[in-house]
Amino acid sequence: MEQRVSLITLGVADVARSRAFYEALGWTASTLGDGSVAFFQCGGMILSLFARADLAGDAGLPAEGDGFRATALAYNTRSHDEVDTVLADMIAAGATLVKPAQEAFWGGYAGYAADLDGHLWEIAWNPGFAIAEDGSVQLPE
Amino acid sequence: MEQRVSLITLGVADVARSRAFYEALGWTASTLGDGSVAFFQCGGMILSLFARADLAGDAGLPAEGDGFRATALAYNTRSHDEVDTVLADMIAAGATLVKPAQEAFWGGYAGYAADLDGHLWEIAWNPGFAIAEDGSVQLPE
Questions:
Q1: Could you tell me if B33 and B78 lie in one domain?
Q2: pLDDT value at position A116?
Q3: Are B140 and B127 in contact (CB under 8 A)?
Q4: In this structure, is residue B141 part of a structural domain?
Q5: Are both A57 and A76 inside the same structural domain?
Q6: A1 CB near a chain B CB, below 8 Å?
Q7: Is residue A140 in some structural domain?
Q8: Which of the residues in chain B have pLDDT under 50?
Q9: Is residue A46 in some structural domain?
């Protein structure tokens, strides 16, 4: 197994509504898909939105679930102050503020928001992780 | 907000144990971190493992949660038969088979496994999504 992730799929209540949320943040969905799924090319990886019940059904699992999902996505900003801008943009698009940005013990600045379906995003400025021109993030050597 | 994801963090019961699981699949963790976190460079993105309670605590959320997490990661294989190989390797490393691989209605071949902490992975051969030499996946135009 190569060291890579091809897709992150987020189960959502309403694909069109969640797609519009990410589009409001400036993202562009692929024209691929019949409306039952939305794909966003994110560098060499894809973020997809799929009905929660369909995702559970595809895996043959019950769709019921509550509470903490033990999963968080992170968006690393290019500057300290951009954390506040991104969080504000997310809230304006309908996200819920989970934790206001604050200086972090590891030397960065970060806060959390949840998207329309409760998927957790950490918005973080981490001066130790380089962000390339193309948006890719590299661990220090 | 640029169209990208910097990190996926999976909350786990035991970081060392989960790190060993991914290393058993052939992955190499970064030397970064004091043992309370493990980082895997995945192309231009990072997969990290962090104690479930610490992840919840960082976001200021209760750590309790049950059932379907409405999230799946996917690993796209380079061939049809590689799906079975990867699923078998995951099971051998301690993962749980959730759905045996089968031909999919969308023309591919896919199955699901859950890692040591129940994080869902779809292992899929999707002839419509190109995989580059470096492992990056691109949506068709």
A1: no
A2: 98
A3: no
A4: no
A5: no
A6: yes
A7: no
A8: none
A9: yes
Domain holding A123, by residue range, is 67-130
Q: Are B103 and B97 in contact (CB under 8 A)?
A: no
Confirm whether the ipTM is greater than 0.90.
yes
Closest chain A residue to B90 measured between Cα atoms? Answer: A1
CB of B111 closer than 8 Å to CB of B83: yes
Asked if the C-beta of B1 comes within 8 angstroms of chain A's C-beta atoms, the answer is: yes
Contacts of A104 (CB under 8 A, 6+ apart): A110, A124
**Structural domain total, chain B:** 2
Spatial CA neighbour of A10 closest among A124, A120, A137: A120
Residue of B nearest to A98 (CA): B59
Does residue A78 share a domain with residue A28?
no
**Does B92 lie at the interface with A, CB-CB under 8 angstroms?**
no
Residue A60 Cα, gap to closest chain B Cα (Å): 7
Tell whether B42 and B17 lie within a shared domain. Answer: yes
The Cα–Cα gap between B22 and A35 comes to: 34
Look at the pTM and tell me if it is higher than 0.90. Answer: yes
Are A59 and A79 part of one and the same domain?
no
Confidence of residue A33 (pLDDT cuts 50, 70, 90): confident
Between strands B96-103 and B45-51, the pairing is unpaired
Of B9, B37, B40, B45, which to mutate for an interface test with A (greatest number of A Cβ within 10 Å)?
B45
Residue pair B41/B6 in contact by the 8 Å Cβ criterion:
no
- Residue among A81, A134, A101 at smallest CA distance from B4: A134
Co-location of A32 and A72 in the same domain: no
pLDDT tens digits, B79-105: 999 999 999 999 999 999 999 999 998
